[in-house]
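> example.struct
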């Protein structure tokens, strides 16, 4: 069985036992989280969409703060001596899907 769930404004296709990185959530390591905003579920050939979906996805927080790859934004203007370097690393939360009910 799979589900498409909306987590922090992004959609993820999940199954039981999946481990994924989602945008940072305010939860500690080992906490249980439930996601109520399920957009679609599927079981074999049966697909349920829209308001007919009555599923809840439960997950466990594996790691609360995981940093992504470094992203560099570099600006310059030729022949002017203007150079600006700005970088950041996005924070994620690693979760493991424990069940779809």
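> example.seq
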């Amino acid at each position: 069985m799979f589900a498409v769930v909306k987590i922090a404004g992004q959609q993820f296709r999940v199954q039981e036992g999946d481990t994924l990185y989602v945008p940072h959530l305010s939860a500690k390591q080992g906490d249980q989280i439930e996601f109520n905003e399920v957009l679609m579920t599927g079981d074999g050939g049966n697909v349920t969409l829209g308001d007919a979906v009555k599923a809840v996805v439960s997950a466990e927080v594996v790691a609360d703060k995981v940093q992504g790859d470094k992203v560099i934004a570099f600006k310059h203007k030729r022949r002017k001596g203007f150079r600006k370097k700005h970088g950041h690393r996005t924070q994620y939360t690693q979760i493991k899907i424990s069940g779809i009910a």
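> remarks
The chain is about 0% helix and 70% strand.
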